Fold this sequence. Notes:
With 85 residues, the chain is mainly alpha-helical. The chain contains one helix and no strands. It is rod-shaped.
Amino acid sequence: MIEVSELFQDLNKLVAEQDDNIIKIEQTGIRVVDNAEQANDKLTDATDIAVRTRSRKKLIVALALILVIVVVIAVAVPVSMSNAK
């Protein structure tokens, strides 16, 4: 009976010694989850920014193309009129 009591006392000591480690592991796990959620939010924001940037880029290219067409027409019409005279 004394041996069983000693075994339980030893087991109690081992559990008490590991308690701090278990608490640290739990806290680290909570931080990992928080960091993963923050990373997910930032990735969502980055995706939205990338989509908006692509849309703006397409708009700028379209405007530049229209500007080039207008300039070409503005230069070509007077030249063709002067050649027709």
